[in-house]
């Protein structure tokens, strides 16, 4: 936690935060002050009558009806600070994820049976405590701000129900957050529906953790935590906000965490709130002043870098200003030529005023477009091409010529091309990055409907990879800049007469070479077997398709097409293939490296399946076809294409069986239709081999899945994992490996329709990679490079059995 100075001046307040001030200033119905509710006074409080609320004995707090909008037609049932401006709400009645909104002339009171009931004007029950309380004698609002329902008039015994045990988004002095309780942020400052964040005491280790709502939770991946996981030790136990104004995490008598300096309740009103932007802030209001609420303490989540669903903290295509992280709210804005999706919710993100991708087609003219330059602006993930460029102009030119490129991100000596949606947008004045946003110079005529972008991919062509057809080998090999054309003599000299063989496969032999550049460039030259494809088709495919690049695909540098000599020139991978590290007797990579290799393969396949146009099926994913560079970044290699399918096709069949025995999906063996799910199956086999460092480990699983449930197969693998790895890996790695096992078995399902997509697989794997334990008891370290993931998982692609295990 970071500590802010004691109250001095109100921190900068963005426009979004002023909405809550407007809500707070809405009129309260003139009220006769009631000290309590008693049994039999069913209509004691009325949303439209003279008695709309009651106060605590000191008058510091009020409980009752609070106008929800300026028309006074709907009302919250709430508790608020009564002597401050604005009158901050500390509790409000909820039904599921939505607030209770009472219409005009609604009433609240204790019935003759002693139950507290909120009724509409036609006596319809709107709300009551859960569980229902009967035989209550009275209900009181205490000076602590706690609303209690008592079964005895004296209320000396513990109350039957109290608001402190049913928190919403706020704690006040005297109120603790215990195991099993949660704070939920509001959707926005003016929308009291359940928002995107929850703060709770983790059930397994007692840590205080902050999670995004509706995302898979585990103890290793909160977006903020008060401390780190400790085996067998409750780290926090309970979040205490004591009556002296101290907010801390207590384990027995040990104070492990403090949010801010202590301020005397005699001098200040205080509250701690989980705000809509995901920050847990402490506020103070000096009694008898007119300055307003001020932030006195703030937790330290990753702020603008929070990896949450819907594109980040500011939504898809949105931008988060890092300079606002210590203010009352994170500032979310839209880039130029973009507008808010919802004017009432700045966190939902932005939409383009004009989507330039709709101009894609045969008539696309780069000269009709230009760029808006945004300095210090970045969308750091989800690039579909990454490469190095010597200048900004070349970066812009590459994006300009690519109709699917919406934004180009330029860093010193590198360029990233992005398509929609843009995610995790950040504006950071200290960052030298630039964003080039493509816009039309004027509004060009739209192409015909046949060429408009189809976001569901149903209208895109599909390449099938893996056969001996050279046409496809060149067509999907991805590149940054124009391909270099080599002569046979140049490559003969570069390889010293094809002397040093690196490997061989069904489609050719690979040799090591050296280009005489400055400095010299080490290359891998694949000399292809003679194929029955025409000269025109070869040249067309190499030059029209080889225009992209992904960091998890081997980069194609150039080609040779001279007579019967057809060769492809690739970047050289110094660590060879994955096969060398999982075969018997090989040097075993540590789990961190193996996990990142697996994630890299998954991201590469995700790109081939979803971001290539047309989409690509590899059909031969296996360890020899996964190459590793000097930093052990995995790169998929060995591409070939059987045929190009027509539009609107998402599957095909092959006349020639492709792939490798042991890695082929059942539908390939049975000559059934082929989809991207064959690659998912092969990846499942490779993933198990990466986990256990052993080839052939998946063979038994394939047999078992014909007869057993997925959960039974997973449990057997987990037991085997503990036997083989329990003595050499720490618990965090074992937990991560077990999650990887669950994903691998899900990929091996016999029915391709129930296998997950590679996007879903990449998401789950990224969240399962352990991060280093924090050295500071307050702040959690930023995630490793492997952790951020492009998009949230779509749980509907998993079967119920898979969802239960993977989440």
TrEMBL record:
This is Receptor-like serine/threonine-protein kinase. Residues 496-769 form the Protein kinase domain. The lineage of its organism: Eukaryota, Viridiplantae, Streptophyta, Embryophyta, Tracheophyta. PROSITE patterns: BULB_LECTIN, PROTEIN_KINASE_ATP, PROTEIN_KINASE_DOM, PROTEIN_KINASE_ST. It comes from Rhynchospora tenuis. GO terms for molecular function: ATP binding; carbohydrate binding; protein serine/threonine kinase activity. One of its GO terms (biological process) is response to other organism. The keyword Lipoprotein does not apply. Belongs to the protein kinase superfamily. Ser/Thr protein kinase family.
